[in-house]
Amino acid sequence: MRTMRDGTQRPRRKGAVQAWTVAWMGVAWCLLWRDFSVANLLSGVALGLLVQLAFPLPPLVLPGRIRPLSVLVFFARFTADMLRASLEVSWQVLRWWRPPRSAVLEVDLDSDSDLVLTFVALVTSLVPGSVVVEARRSTHTLFVHVLDVVDDAGVEDARDHVLAVERRVVRALGADRPHRRPEETR
Question: Is the pLDDT of residue 1 over 60?
Fold first, then answer.
């Protein structure tokens, strides 16, 4: 058992090497070299094993099964959010007479999945005008820097946007609802 910062116990991982991850690293190595020879694949697998032993990561577990229609909705909404945010940031740059006010807000995610936390952080950072400055795995909390927040309503809108991204990610990954442990309260 391993004690986390908040005092809870987390069981140790069963093994440091994950076969599928090593296989994907070997394929990625071949893609980087643009050569699919046996020697290149074996060197990529060996490098993947070395990376996994040197920098062990917890296993990624899908909270459900991937739903193709929800994935399409997710990507369509993500594209629309990127286009809208790009136009908003461009307008803020052109509006030289009014400098944008920014804020850093704390968003407690409803899911306790590390994969969902990672996806939400990546998607939030890829949308112009917002960037995740810290992600706390122990509490599943994101700290997000957002541009042009004028009042408390703007802060709540930005927080609601991050939570909406989380709901779309959870739906796309196949989980019916967030998996926050029942003993945790907000």
Answer: no
Residues 45-84 as b or e (16 or more Cβ within 10 Å = b): beebbeebeeeeeeeeeebeeeeeebbeebeeebeebeee
Residue 114: CB partners within 8 Å, gap ≥ 6?
58, 60, 137
Based on the domain organization, do 165 and 75 belong to the same domain? yes
Q: What residues make up the domain containing 11?
A: 2-54
Mean pLDDT across the stretch 10-21?
A: 68
Torsion, CA 50, CA 52, CA 53, CA 58, rounded to 10: 180
| Any domain includes 23 | yes
**pLDDT for 43-87, tens place per residue?**
999 999 998 888 877 776 666 788 899 999 999 999 999 999 999
Instruction: Please tell me whether residue 9 adopts helix, strand or coil conformation.
Output: strand
For the chain, how many structural domains are there in total? 2
